[in-house]
Batch of 2 targets.
Target 1
Amino acid sequence: MPSNEEVFEKVREALMDALGVDDDEVTPEATLVGDLGAESIDFLDIIFKVEKAFDIKIEREELFPEDVLSNAEYVQDGRVTEAGLAVLKERMPFADLTKFEENPIVQDFGNLLTVQDLCNYVSTKVA
Amino acid sequence: MRWFLIDRFTEFVSKQYAVAVRSISLSEEAVDEYVPGIPAYPSSLIVEGMAQTGGILCSQISDFEQRMVLAKIMKLKMNAEAVPGDLLTLRAELQTHTADGAVIRGVVHRGDFVLAEMQLMFAILDDDRFQNIQLFEPAGFCRMLRVLKLFNVGVKEDGTPIKIPEFMLEAEQAELSVG
Amino acid sequence: MRFTQLDRIHALEKGEFIEARRCLALSEGYLADHFPRFPIMPGVLMLEALYQASMWLVRVSDDFENSYVGLRETRSMKFKGFVQPGDSLDVRCKIQSRKDTLTTLQVAGSIGDEKAVVGRMVLESYNLEERGLVDNYLHTYTISQYKKMFRLLCDQMNPDNPSKLAMSNS
């Protein structure tokens, strides 16, 4: 099983390659969308590269449980409800949702994931 | 100029790979005068040849129902320019295919020499902005595929021939009507 | 000239950056095929526009001494928007680093404030005659033609246009 450093290095390489960013931009705290400029189409690229680097299979719904956000049960007035947050936490144990919880606006969800979250997710897959 | 950047398919196995050929001629507008005095074929058009080879490989998976466009050149390495008289062989291999798009790896050979290598990503146009947008007329698109010999060489994974989709045949018949 | 993918060069600073524009018209033949029902500039022609702008920047930065300036590599070239007939693609290419014959550039094209294409590319430049690939006549002819093309691409009615950079030592 690769160490956390090894996972980070490989993820960093994939992100630099997919997003055309420099190595010093890819910090653990950087958000994929806001800080590194990832767009919808880039996630296909990122997932493809990370799958290759670690020889794993990634389901997009695992990484981005968008179905929760399109479920009326879990969203009210553009915000994720308590119940919705509970589901997200359960579905995304690899992500740090503390900040999102403070102001759970659905639109901000896309900008949630950080490099560290992606590394955590990969670690659960290679374990 | 027209926008057919491959001459014809020579191999095509659904969901796996496609091979096309392209010959480069001095009489092409884009070759003569591109580099004054030293005729050469623009590298960007080699990429387009691969995008057409790979794009048809990817959209055949949905029987050409999905609208796919080149979204990203993930990688491109050009080892040389193509020059008049070259016969290029373009081979596209499908690497991944999801609900969002597809990735192909492409290698362009001139004889044994690897002229170019690339990795291309195609996106499926599915968001709201593209709801009413069609790219091709089905009959015209089908005629292009016929001209490219796709249905002459194309096979499914089990080796049986790729058939012309029904909606294309119908569009062709409608177009034949003189009225 | 037949395959020029730029209409005008607006600004150029040697060794630094170039700004140029490409306007798309429905009269361009390939739009009939790309696509018959949705005419848009093929992504690879955006790539070509970015390469040509980068090529001019490299040629001018080296005082037109190299006859060959070709595309070697691109990295993460992303097409973010469609260029439709009537649109102008504003191209900006910036030199990131230079090492021996290779120049790495950050390149982008925008329509108004919206980025339509971004990426990086590597160009290689050298003297074809020194490498024994062409004779002195063709080497010199090629360079003289590039200087003339560069003059055409710059706004000659603007006294401050960058084409002075090409003509200064010829």
Note: The two ends of chain C are 21 Å apart (CA to CA).
Target 2
Amino acid sequence: MNQSNKILNNNITKLVNQPYKYGFSTTIEKDIIEKGLNENVIYLLSKKKNEPNFLLKFRLKAYKKWKEMKCPQWAQLKFEEIDYQDIIYYSAPKIKKKLNSLDEVDPELLETFNKLGISLTEQKRLTNVAVDAVFDSVSIATTFKEELAEYGVIFSSISEAIHDYTKIVEKYLGTVVPIGDNYFSALNSAVFTDGSFCYIPKNVICPLDLSTYFRINDQKSGQFERTLIIAEENSQVSYLEGCTAPQYDNNQLHAAIVELIALNNATIKYSTVQNWYSGDQKGQGGVFNFVTKRGLCAGDSSKISWTQVETGSSITWKYPSCILVGENAQGEFYSVALTNNYQQADTGTKMIHIGKNTRSRIVSKGISAGNSKNTYRGLVNVNKKAIGARNYSQCDSLLIGNMSNANTFPFISVQNSRTKIEHEASTSKIGEEQLFYFLQRGISIEKGIELMISGFCNEVFTELPLEFASEADRLLSLKLEGSVG
Amino acid sequence: MNLNTPILEIKNLRAGINNSEILKNLNLTINRGEIHAIMGPNGSGKSTFSKIIAGHPAYQVVSGEILFNGQSILELEPEKRSHLGIFLAFQYPIEIPGVSNEDFLRLAYNSKQKFYNKPEVDPIEFFSLINDKLKLVNMSSTFLSRNVNEGFSGGEKKRNEILQMILLESELSILDETDSGLDIDALKVISTGINTFMDSNKAIILITHYQRLLDYIKPDYVHVMQNGKIIKTGNADLAKELEIKGYEWLK
């Protein structure tokens, strides 16, 4: 290794060693189901949650399906086999009685969310965002519920929705991501514990951004959340998702499902800033993130837009997708995936064009530093009937240092001749000479990288809601400071 | 600071890259108000010389001393050297995708302001400040919104370097083959910019292959570098002689 690399690598080590801010854990009395998975666990879980019969059946069917399936091997990911019998499937803070208001929430929990910058108490709430806070297996609190109800907007934990709005949940659950869609969706369908439910009625533009904050606390517990968002005709909603986890030596499993349904002329904008614990510099620990996110543009002129900033997790396996059924439906996917140290990310999207004149747009930005591996995997599928469909895809990779790895796998399948597909891809590298150029002009390495990264990600960041955009910018520079060689 | 102290003093400098010695016992003294030209055949160590003064991390100094205004700079980081007033105009200016020229220039300017505990300027102030400088190198303000050197023509890149030199008010500017790849009009523009910038408090080192540049910027001294040391020093006439006789004549 030459001198300059040594100097730059020292910088990396110094700056990447910044501790993960959210690595603390909370000690709290818990109600758990012993680790391991079998039919009894599912019966018990369903009983604990006092669920209607349809859901128990749904779970059992999923469990059966899951047992027949195998963990997918096609992704560019290497990890030790997950021992599903060593995971706790239900872990909830003990609640002595039913809560009537937030004041009754365990102060320890409120404090945990305060530390994470998510205030659930009345005075300090984010003014224009309603928050559902999920801690391990259960939703702790949902803010602004009454205010939203005035507009007919339902925003609650999915557990509550299963009781209070059984019909709607039963109608839509598993319609976008079927039970047997993939190994992890089957697992989630069998054991999901909580998540968010949003229902936007006809002709309503949701007055607040809706947001769920997921926190895995328990060392041994997996988080299996389920989110269902339904936007009726002519409605609009913007939804944000954030997540963190404590710093443990072992890996925690997170296998979520998100289903979005947009009816005629409805718009759903779904944004994620994923900051699960990503493991230490040697690749020890970190969250395994296996997520199935899919949106159905069922109605004409409906629109679903995914924006994701993926910075955490030791493994990311995630392909937020759009099924464009309605005529003139639009799907969008904007992604920044950043990997450092030994993180591995295999992420991308699927755009399935079924309706006429459907349009999709994919902008993916992968940044790999350290010894990490960053893969874009995408599918654009244009059906026979999707006359006049259009897709634009752009996949850019940025490499930092000599040990990182970037892959791009774009699959395009077109079955009619009246389709317009555009694909652009680029790979670039932050090199020693660029950094010297910054230094020679008196600009520090950190500032230089920050400037280059934010320029690289700009197209995606502008898609984020305001509250998230600055957060994302800050997060990336924090994660990357000095990680250059 | 004593004004009689040389701006740059290089004593018995041995330096190189990857354990191969390129500069072999180099000595050079440059005073305020002086323009020095360094000429020499390819591979004589001219570019290495410029990178070592600027502190490129890939190069190592084996022995000897580099004094800037009487102080050793050997242990200083490249950004610190920049703040002190050392500027290197690159032979091949680097492209930086995704970063606008304006942001880059402002950050460079403000980094220096900060170093001297002076107030940083906001984007609006900066815009008027930079606009005045743009005129000196005949650049239009559309340059500002383009990414740093990305898609710039050879001439535009070199003008951008001179713009940065002017903006940062550097005391010692090393121009590494700033004339290469320029047509005659661009050469005139750049030379005018450099001549306007130069004053009795500054010093400039021109690294060049050709006499042509020296028709526009008159050097006080011309040095010939070969095998990592200066083998001959003269006045502007030396360059003309070299143009006719070539370097072989000196051997």
Note: Residues 1-22+61-76 of chain B form one domain.
